[in-house]
Every structure is written in C-alpha cells, then in structure tokens.
Here is the input.
Amino acid sequence: MNWLDRKAMRDAFERAAPDYDAHAVLQREVGARLLGRLDYLKVEPRRVLDAGCGTGHGSKLLRARYPDAQLIGLDIAFGMLTRSRAADLPASPWRRLLSRGQTAAHYVCADAQRVPLAAGSLDLVHSNLMLQWCESPAAVFRAWHRVLRPGGLALFATFGPDTLKELRAAFAGIDGLPHVSPFIDMHDLGDMLVHAGFETPVMEMETLVLTYADLRGLLQDIRGVGGHNAARERARGLMGKARWSQLQRRYEEYRREGRLPASYEVIYGHAWAGAVREMADGRAVIQWKIDERRRRNG
Here is the structure.
C-alpha cells in the first residue's frame, strides 16, 4: 500500500525533534508499558536495537535495564538521532569520567524497512510507536528477522485502526481526502510476523484516551511529535477558515465533561525469531538433520 510520502514524513520528524519531548506524553507512557513486558520475558541481550529511537527516551531505559549490552539507536530523522545521542551523554564532566567503562551506544540514520546491520547480529529489537510510520510493516518484520539471531526477541508497540477515530470521523465528508494514517489491525500484524519467520507471536491491545480543552491543543500535540499528515493524497496548503470551523463543530460532538477526547488503540506485540528460512537473494534454506548413529555405522 503506497500511501506514505516518506520525504514529508521524515521532514516532519526533523522539524519536531527540538520540541518533541514536550509533546510526547503518550509516547513515554506507552514506552513504559512496553518495557514492562520485559519483566516477564527471559532475555539477556548482548546487542539491542532501538528501532525508531526518536530523542532517546526509550534507549535510555534500555541502557539502564541492560547496562552491559551494546545499544544501537536507529531513526530515519537525523535530528532525532542528534537529540538521542546528546541525551545519552552524561551532563557533567565528572559523570562522563565515571561512565567511561560503559558499553558505548551507536546511532544509525536509516529506514527501518532496510536495517543496515549484519544478519544474526542482534539479540533484541525494541520499537516504540514507530511501525505505524512504515508503508510495509511486513518488510520491517523481515528486516528484523534477518538481523536477529535465531531465538532473538522482537518487541514493539504501534497504533491500531481505532486510533484517532474521533478526528477521522470529524474529517469525514469535509473533503474526501485522508487526514489520519491507515493503521493496521493487530491480527494482520500477527500474520505478518509469522510470514516473516517469527514464532509464537503474542499480540495485545488496549485503548488509551487523552483529553484536551480544545481541538487546537490536540493537533499541536500530534504535530509536536512529528505526526503531520504525510499521505500522498493529502490536501496541500493551509486549511481555510470555513473548513476549520466545520472541523471544530464536528469534533465538538465528542466533548464530554468539558473535554475533547483523542482515542488511541495501542497494540503491543512480541515474537521470537525462528531459524532462517530464506537467504537475502530469495533462495530457500533447507535444514538437514543427520542421525549420528547412522553416520557412525556408515
């Protein structure tokens, strides 16, 4: 589904980088809930990828949880990586001296659909609210499976179809153009994991609702984390006063107890990388099991 203008998406995240943390309340909350799932999963990684690391909040928590692991932060926006690297450096010279023995983090500016790392080089891939910004989650899962060693863990959170359902409904009928991303159902994501070679995928969903005094505040938060409308078929230019007034009237229908809701369907998923079944050039990998007794007996 070729719905995304990737340059517009990347540019939006570049612009959002300086003030991202001021608007990322939801991202931090979901990130904490995602990392909490590691309390119940047996994994002691030596090398961890934070895919879509943003300004580095999740990376910092991963470093604290696995201090001896090598962390790699990946993001498509260079501005986000710059913030992430700065956040990883201790503030004072004294703390920098004390932290010299820690494993250094590395940062890669790249597309999550084409992770530029060696096959089988990772033990854990972590991704918090990045997957919804990829045209092909299936391609992302294949890339993760390639870079994970067999038995490695992929852990992620993304948004499902009911995300921003109020905003989607308010826009409906105004211009017939897309204004909210086409989020993917968690059952389809589970199928994609299996097809990519992952085993025993576990998918969970919950709804989180943020509330706002007005529509302008909601849209400022969305744009503040880089969530501009990046659909190829989006309307160009500024919204006129008439359309803005119409949008406000439509959204006011959802006001409850003096606040406007913004619903987010949050999907959490994890799965274990199975054995490699296909090489990079598309050739199948066939595994042969040899009976040791038969080989010894000729």
